[in-house]
Design a protein that fits this description.
Layout (H helix, E strand, L loop, with lengths): L1 H29 L12 H39 L24
């Protein structure tokens, strides 16, 4: 009984390895190898490309900061023109209610 259990476990553990190896053989036959093309540039061209990239990145960061600054200043201006609504400065208007019964039907 123990021998059959060991053989079963051995067969089950080897089976996924053999299936995985078989699938790998099928995929390597059907796929084409990737080709990478490298183009060399002159040092001046690369320096110009790098300068342009850094300049555009700085411009993008500056625009994001300007948008944030404009939004914050606009919010502060709106808050300045609005009066603070608190219980202390809200005008109290008394409401007179007649002494009547209210019925709900």
């Amino acid at each position: 009984m123990k021998l059959s259990a060991y053989l079963t476990l051995l067969a089950v553990s080897i089976l996924p390895l053999s299936l995985h190896a078989e699938q790998m053989d099928k995929t390597t036959d059907s796929e084409a190898m990737e080709v990478i093309t490298v183009s060399y540039r002159a040092p001046l061209d690369y320096a110009l490309y790098q300068y342009t990239t850094e300049l555009l990145n700085q411009f993008r960061i500056q625009i994001e900061a300007d948008i944030y600054t404009q939004a914050r200043s606009g919010s502060l201006k709106m808050a300045k023109y609005q009066s603070d609504m608190t219980a202390w400065n809200t005008p109290y208007t008394p409401i007179t209610i007649d002494n009547k019964w209210v019925r709900s039907e």
